[in-house]
Write a structure and sequence with these properties.
The complex is a heterodimer of chains A (about 350) and B (about 300). Chain A is α/β, with parallel strands linked by helices and about 350 residues long. Chain A is built from eleven helices and 14 strands. In chain A, strand 3, helix 4 and strand 4 form a beta-alpha-beta unit. Chain B has about 300 residues and is mainly alpha-helical. Chain B has 14 helices and no strands. Classes of the chains: A alpha/beta (about 350), B mainly alpha (about 300). Chains A and B meet through strand 7, helix 7 and helix 8 of A and helix 1, helix 5, helix 13 and helix 14 of B.
């Protein structure tokens, strides 16, 4: 609930006026604004976006001004915040959560001169809305392999936030790659229905552990699941969104690190030099947007080597985490033998693959 | 022993611990509201307590001092509210909401550099041979001291509010501050003390989150627990034992629904995740609706400021 740099300077006002017609020739000064779904101190998702914002500041110095607002609820509040930012002279606004999709498109329609960049979404209703995402499912594949190899109870868990394609494709990728190395593995999915609620995330992890799960992946934003896993011996987990290196001597055996900096620098840079165009970016391990955090010594050397080989193969493009034959949960065919998943299928993925129990909430 | 893949003993033991933050905060707010003050800043006091308690516990290495620190932090924040509403007669609703925003900001500032630090562990209070007794062991003897403290506080507050002179004075101030004033009680001073007590309880509840339930500090760690506590006070008709039932119901169903999800229950997840809110409200409403004729128990002077000149 903090708004920094609230007062737009007179220079900024001038920048806004000039900004409208000056895109083609580039701009001298860009005000880049960020809307965060949680607090920067979450140690995960929002923290990494803010690192990206810091990278922009570092790359362009005085030529950019950064403004951000934390803990903006998804829904009507987001629209209000976005409108305020657009009126306040922001040239480019990054909305960093799936739930801002409709608000971003609604406000973007009213401010054609302001560029909007929506993370993890798929709607680009006006020419000034771009979407960007990272192929987190590639990282989930590596985690799945580790989970399948490491579980003693053959029960692995996944704490989901909301049933959206982004999360579901992570669950599927995690499960498929665990299953590949360990056919006996069973996956339990818990829906927390929140991105950030440390106590609830810890409760979800505890529920999984109480029922015999010994490898926990989470798709929520805080480090709480790892803190909970640390209370029980022989339970391991993964850093999510951020490296979560502080749990390296405990349950954290690897991590997916969201590396937004390069993309943010590229987009703001394009705005500055006049080459900005609407985009639909989706980079993965190969593009450096998804990093696999260090695999710790708790993982045996052969498993570690296997995981790193998978990571490198995905980066090289020789392995796709979704390679057929894969059936959907209901038994119908999805991918034929040897076929890889088209991006469209992944971005709209609202089904579990065969073998996962439980329904996706509607 | 297991029912549908869930061990009820572990479930009950877990819910008792997971309800502590809400229970502590709601008990404190019960006293505050019984004295006629509506402090909507519970969330803010909790998060400040979570942060203050965490810092003290890390600095001293003692979780008990951490809880005391949390209580002091929550109390100090509540005194700002007390100053504004009892001395300057500011609107209680607006001030309470502002207190939450202020608390979230202050705790975020004070918590800088504490991300990823691990606090000293709070162990189980009673020896292992008691906690290892089948069934009753984990439920009755397997907890840390805060679980027992929160239950004891429920009993103490019930006893104080119902039977003691002090409780009578607090209630009198909350029902009719004019009458209490006419009898010579210092209305604003009594309210101020109640507010400070409520702050201390909320602070301890918050500290339980950062020191025991999620043993770490992240910004905004309470994530709305204070609002749940506020709602439970109302639905529990301002009665301590009902507050306990409400907190355990809410905590219990939250834990139960997560366990049901893991166990692969046939109930759709969307119903499971709304269940804690729904069932808690329904049960408490039915309980309060039982006694007809008697008002729902809201203190008559709730939310009204008092000045002796009137």
């Amino acid at each position: 609930m903090k708004r920094r740099n609230l007062l737009a300077t007179a220079a900024m006002g001038l920048g806004l006026v000039l900004g409208g017609g000056a895109f083609a020739q580039g701009m001298d000064h860009v005000k880049a604004c960020f809307v965060y779904v949680g607090p920067i101190g979450d140690g995960g998702w929002t923290f990494q976006h803010n690192e990206g914002a810091n990278a922009v500041k570092e790359a362009f110095g005085d030529k950019v001004e950064i403004q951000y607002q934390e803990s903006v609820p998804e829904g009507a509040d987001a629209e209000r915040v976005l409108t305020q930012m657009a009126l306040g002279g922001c040239n480019i606004i990054f909305t960093t959560s799936f739930g801002y999709m409709d608000a971003t498109n609604a406000v973007a329609a009213k401010f054609p001169d302001v560029k909007f960049e929506h993370a993890t979404g798929f709607k680009r209703d006006s020419a000034n809305v771009s979407t960007y995402n990272a192929r987190f499912y590639e990282g989930r594949a590596v985690q799945g392999l580790i989970a399948g190899r490491m579980t003693k109870s053959n029960k692995i868990g996944y704490i989901g936030s909301f049933p959206i394609p982004e999360v579901i494709m992570g669950i599927n990728s995690y499960y498929l790659n665990a299953k590949k190395v360990n056919p006996d593995v069973e996956l339990s999915v818990v829906w927390a229905f929140t991105w950030f609620d440390p106590a609830k995330e810890a409760d979800a992890a505890k529920a999984l552990i109480d029922q015999g799960v010994d490898v926990i992946a989470s798709h929520t934003d805080s480090t709480a699941p790892l803190a909970e896993a640390a209370k029980t011996e022989n339970v391991i987990g993964f850093g999510q969104a951020s490296d979560m290196a502080e749990y390296k001597d405990g349950p954290r055996v690897s991590s997916i690190i969201d590396n937004w900096g390069p993309y943010y620098v590229k987009r703001v840079g394009a705005l500055l030099d006049g080459t900005y165009e609407q985009a639909d970016a989706w980079e993965g391990i190969a593009g450096g947007e998804v990093l696999i955090g260090e695999i710790t010594d708790r993982i045996p050397a052969d498993v570690k080597a296997e995981a790193e080989a998978l990571r490198d193969a995905i980066a090289a493009g020789t392995v796709h985490p979704f390679t057929g034959p894969i059936k959907k949960q209901d038994g119908s065919d999805w991918l034929a033998d040897g076929a890889t998943a088209p991006d469209g299928d992944l971005l709209g993925m609202m089904f579990f693959v065969e073998g996962i129990t439980g329904d996706i909430p509607q | 022993m297991d029912i549908g893949g869930i061990n009820p003993v572990i479930l009950i033991a877990t819910l008792m611990a997971s309800a502590v933050p809400i229970l502590m905060a709601a008990l404190g707010e019960t006293v505050v509201e019984r004295s006629g003050v509506l402090n909507l800043g519970v969330e803010g006091m909790m998060v400040v307590g979570a942060q203050g308690g965490f810092v003290i516990a890390v600095a001293t290495g003692s979780p008990v001092l951490g809880f005391i620190g949390g209580a002091v932090a929550g109390s100090i924040l509540s005194l700002i509210f007390a100053l504004l509403t009892q001395v300057f007669l500011a609107n209680q609703v607006a001030t309470g909401l502002a207190l939450t925003l202020f608390g979230l900001g202050v705790s975020s500032l004070g918590g800088q550099g504490y991300n990823g630090v691990k606090p000293p562990p709070t162990g189980q209070l009673l020896p292992d041979f008691l906690a290892d007794v089948p069934v009753v062991g984990p439920i009755l003897f397997g907890h840390d001291w805060m679980v027992y403290f929160s239950i004891a506080m429920t009993a103490v507050l019930w006893w104080v509010l119902k039977t003691t002179r002090m409780g009578l004075i607090i209630r009198a101030v909350g029902e009719s501050h004019e009458a209490a004033h006419a009898l010579g009680y210092k209305v604003n001073r009594i309210r101020l003390m109640c507010i400070a007590f409520g702050g201390a309880m909320a602070g301890m509840g918050g500290a339980y989150i950062s020191l025991v339930r999620v043993p770490q500090w992240v910004d905004g760690i309470t994530a709305g627990a204070g609002w749940i506590a506020l709602a439970i006070v109302v639905f529990a008709s301002w009665k301590p034992w009902r507050v306990l039932i409400g907190a355990y119901l809410f905590g219990g169903i939250t834990v139960l629904q997560l366990n049901l999800q893991v166990a692969g229950s046939a109930i759709p997840v969307e119903y499971l995740s709304m269940a804690p809110y729904l069932i808690t409200i329904v049960v408490l409403v039915i309980m309060s609706a039982g006694k007809r004729g008697k008002a729902n128990g809201a203190p008559a002077a709730l939310g009204q400021n008092f000045h002796a000149s009137r």
